[in-house]
Amino acid sequence: MSKTKRILMVVTNHTKITEDHKTGLWLEEFAVPYQVFKDKGYDVKVTSIQGGEVALDPNSVPEEKKSEWQAAEEELKHTVPLSKDDAKGFDAIFLPGGHGTMFDFPDNETLQYVLQQFAEDGKVIGAVCHGPAGLVNVTYQDGTPLVKGKKVNCFTNAEEKETGLEEHMPFLLETKLREQGAEFVCGEKWADFSVRDGNLVTGQNPMSSKSTAEKVIEAIENPA
User: Is the pTM of this model over 0.90?
Assistant: First the structure.
C-alpha cells in the first residue's frame, strides 16, 4: 500500500500594506488548494511565518460563508511557525498568496532554507498569485536561482497595476522573477492560468488556485 502523500503549506502573517490598507492571506488561494489536497487523501500541514492565527486580506473574505472552505479556515486559527525541520518529510510545499507574502516571504531565512532543501531533494514546489514572492531569492546550493530557465508564472505586473497597489509593493513580482532568469509565461488578466515545469508549479491569480493545486498533484503522482 502506498504511503500517504504529505503537503506543507506556508502562509503569510503580514497584515498591512499602508496604515489604511490592510492585507494578509488571500483566502481562496489557501482554501481551494487545501481542499483539493484533502480530497485527494493527502496529509496537509499548515504553517505560517510566525505561527498563531493568520489574518486574511479583508477583500478575500466572501460576503457569504462558503461551507466547503470551513475546514481550511479552521486550520488558520492556530498555525505553527515554519521550522527548518519542515524541510524534510513532505512530498510538496505550497505557497498561497495575498499581498502579505510580498513583505514576509522573500527574506525569511527559514522559508528560504526550506525551499532550497525541497529544490535540492527534487520535491515539488507550488505557489500561486503572490505566493511566488517566496521563490525570488531562493537558490540551489551552487547559487543558481531556483527559477532560472524555468517556465514560471505569478500575479502579473498588469494585474498589479489594476489593483492600484503597484506603488506600495517592495518590488513587482513578475519583474523580479524575470530578473532571476525565469521564462515568464502568463494568461489573460484575471483568468485561470497555471504552469508546471518539472517539479515547479506556479499560478497567476486567485482564479488559478484550483488548477495550480491540481498540477501540484500531477507533479507528485507523475514526476517529470
Answer: yes
Do 97 and 30 meet the contact criterion of CB atoms below 8 Å apart? Answer: no
Q: Which domain holds residue 217?
A: 6-221
Can you tell me the distance from the alpha carbon of 145 to that of 75, in angstroms, rounded to the nearest whole number? 32
Rounded to a whole number of angstroms, the CA Rg of the chain reads: 16
DSSP class of residue 164 equals T
Confidence label for 65 from pLDDT (cuts 50, 70 and 90): confident
pLDDT > 70 fraction of the chain, expressed in percent and rounded: 99
Q: How far apart are CA 158 and CA 2, in angstroms?
A: 43
CATH of the domain at 121: 3.40.50.880
Residue 206 lies in a domain: yes
Residue 1 belongs to a domain = no
| Domain presence at residue 60 | yes
Task: Determine whether 54 is exposed, middle or buried from the number of CB atoms within 10 Å of its CB (0-12, 13-18, 19+).
Answer: buried
pLDDT by residue (tens digit) across 128-144? Answer: 999 999 999 999 999 99
For the chain, what is the domain count?
Answer: 1
Q: So what's the pLDDT on residue 73? A: 97
| Angle of the 209-221 helix axis to the 27-39 helix axis, nearest 10 | 40
